[in-house]
Structure formats: structure tokens, C-alpha cells
Design brief:
Mean pLDDT: 88
Strand content: under 5%
Oligomer: single chain
Distance between the termini: 31 Å
Structural class: mainly alpha
Radius of gyration: 19 Å
Order of helices and strands: HHHHHHHHHH
Number of helices: 10
Number of strands: 0
Length: 284
């Protein structure tokens, strides 16, 4: 099968990546926010009911919206540029290219995503009642570094996730395109994204639980003892609450990211396709 079955022969430029990624990020975060809130409350130390139950499941949405578009834009900009620059490597090395490109994309995206994630999760679990109060409270307790609490934990969680998700996603797209003998359509790419995201979400749930605990832990606030460090948090949760606690929220997380993969990657592929086909925002 010739390479014309691969949709990626057309490469989006920087502006097209930013626009398509920003649209995809905002679409998925807005549409699936209630599932994210439920997952976060299940993972909180206090438990689901104490963290708010089903009340106020859109708490923190404003923070998510602020960070979703720039975070997704940063990811896809980095991912596409690295993937394109290494596209001449042999096909058997492409899964490693996708792993590297996705990992670099997550490191860049987390610079934007983590501060909004910290604020969002503290609103979701009723640590604060308003966006302004969450920002002021975090700054007062920990300064600017408080907004990057859990940055390393999130990066460590996201890299295994993307190293699983994107090679599967790219493989499924290419395999399906070869099977049907034509470029893959955006809704078909969305299905590939859903499958890849669901698998990656289930496998990396323990790291997501650790990320949630670290981000919700605040210095000097008189709450439960602070969580700090990936390995120490993993072992502490397993010791104090049992190994099952490391998989808290696995069902809503897997469902959320499976649907999210469909919306996120499907939206990205659709907007990218439209921009490439129409020449909008091209460099010409």
C-alpha cells in the first residue's frame, strides 16, 4: 500500500496546530467536565461524599477552560513538529518517534496545564468556593510555586499515558487506512483515539491517583498530612488504604478518557483537515 493512505502526508504549520489543538482542548474539557469532577472526588482522601458528591459538578470549570486551549495547543504544536522532523526514520522506529514526540508535547503542555489543574481540583473538592479564592488561597499558602504543586507528578503520569496512547492511536489509524485503501476520516480517527485513550487511562490510573493527592495537598493549611513525592505517595496510599485505593476512579477515568479521546482527537483531526484542505492559516 502506498503512502497516500496516510493522512499525515500533509503537515500542519504552527498556527494550524495551535488553532486545531486549542479547539480540541476546549471541546473535550467543556463536554466531559462532570466526569472529571466525579473522578477527582473519588480519588480525594476525604472520599466522594465529603468532597462534594454530585453537588456542584461544574465547580472549577472556569479554570479548566482557561487552561484547556493553550495547553492542548502547546501539546499538538510540539507533537506535530517533532513527529514531522523525524518522519524519515524507518517505519519500525516510528512508534518510538510517537512516544518521544508525545512525551515532549506533554512536558510543554504541563507548563500551562498544571496551574489551572491545581486550581480546578481544589474547586472540585470544595477546598475553595470561587476561582478568585482558590487563586488567592494557593498563592497565600505556597506562593507561585504552589500553582506548580504536582508538576513533576503530572509529567510522570502523562509520559507513560502518552507513550501508550499515541503509538496505539497512530498504529490504529495507519492500519485502518491500509485496510480500507484511503485516508482515514476524522470520525474514524476519533474511534482510534477512543480505544487508545481507554487502554492508556486504565493502565495509568495509579499515577493519576497520586497526582490528585499531591495537588490537593496544601502546606500549612491544617489538613491531613501533606503528600509529597511519587514513590512515597504510592506506598503511603497502598499502606494506609490498601492497593485498591490506587485504582480509585478507574471507571469514570476510563470512560471519561475513552469518550474524551473520541472528542479530543476527532475534533483535532477534523479541524486540522479543514484547515489543510482549505488552506486557511497556511504560510502561503
Amino acid at each position: 500500500m502506498t503512502r497516500d493512505t496516510n493522512r499525515e502526508i500533509k503537515t500542519p504549520n504552527m498556527t494550524q496546530c495551535l488553532v486545531a489543538g486549542g479547539f480540541a482542548g476546549m471541546a473535550v474539557d467543556t463536554a466531559l467536565y462532570p466526569l472529571d469532577t466525579i473522578k477527582t472526588r473519588l480519588q480525594a482522601r476525604g472520599g466522594f461524599i465529603a468532597s462534594g458528591g454530585f453537588r456542584g459538578i461544574y465547580s472549577g470549570l472556569s479554570s479548566a477552560i482557561i487552561g484547556s486551549a493553550p495547553g492542548a495547543s502547546m501539546f499538538f504544536l510540539t507533537y506535530e513538529q517533532i513527529k514531522t522532523s523525524l518522519s524519515d526514520l524507518p517505519s519500525q522506529q516510528q512508534p518510538f518517534v510517537h512516544m518521544f514526540a508525545a512525551s515532549a508535547g506533554e512536558v510543554a503542555a504541563c507548563l500551562v496545564r498544571v496551574p489551572t489543574e491545581v486550581v480546578k481540583q481544589r474547586l472540585q473538592t470544595r477546598h475553595h468556593n470561587t476561582l478568585g479564592a482558590a487563586v488567592r488561597g494557593t498563592y497565600a499558602a505556597e506562593g507561585l510555586l504552589g500553582f506548580y504543586r504536582g508538576y513533576l507528578t503530572q509529567v510522570v503520569r502523562e509520559i507513560p499515558f502518552t507513550c501508550i496512547q499515541f503509538p496505539i492511536y497512530e498504529y490504529l489509524k495507519l492500519a485502518y487506512a491500509r485496510r480500507v485503501g484511503r485516508p482515514i476520516r476524522s470520525y474514524e480517527a476519533a474511534v482510534c483515539g477512543s480505544v487508545a485513550g481507554g487502554v492508556a487511562a486504565a493502565v495509568t490510573t495509579p499515577l493519576d491517583v497520586v497526582k490528585t493527592r499531591v495537588m490537593l495537598s496544601t502546606k500549612g493549611m491544617g489538613q491531613s498530612p501533606e503528600y509529597s513525592g511519587i514513590v512515597s505517595t504510592l506506598s503511603r496510599i497502598a499502606r494506609e488504604e490498601g492497593p485498591r485505593a490506587l485504582f480509585s476512579g478507574i471507571v469514570p477515568r476510563t470512560v471519561w478518557i475513552s469518550i474524551g479521546g473520541f472528542v479530543f482527537l476527532g475534533s483535532y483531526e477534523k479541524v486540522k483537515s479543514v484547515l489543510l484542505e482549505t488552506g486557511l492559516l497556511s504560510n502561503r
